[in-house]
Specification:
Low-confidence stretches: none
Strand content: under 5%
Mean pLDDT: 88
Helix content: 40-55%
Distance between the termini: 71 Å
Radius of gyration: 24 Å
Length: 86
Amino acid sequence: MTRVLKYATRVVKEKLTLTVERSAIEKAKKFARRNRTSLSRIVEDRFRSLGRESFAERWYGKFKVPPANRKDPRLTYLLRKYVHNR
């Protein structure tokens, strides 16, 4: 019988003081309550995401898009609905 022992790793956290407009703090607190999280978690997650590419940046240019076929009824429908009726 093999035993697997799990050890908890302790993460050292530090306090950070930020200067932010009052209205932004109020919005952030409402957002945190709605999403059942803390302001600290929101800020930490944002800090962790710095330097990462966005989804759009990561996939831009990865797919080949065929040229539009003007006789395609789907294209005609979409053009009529979203472009020509503006």
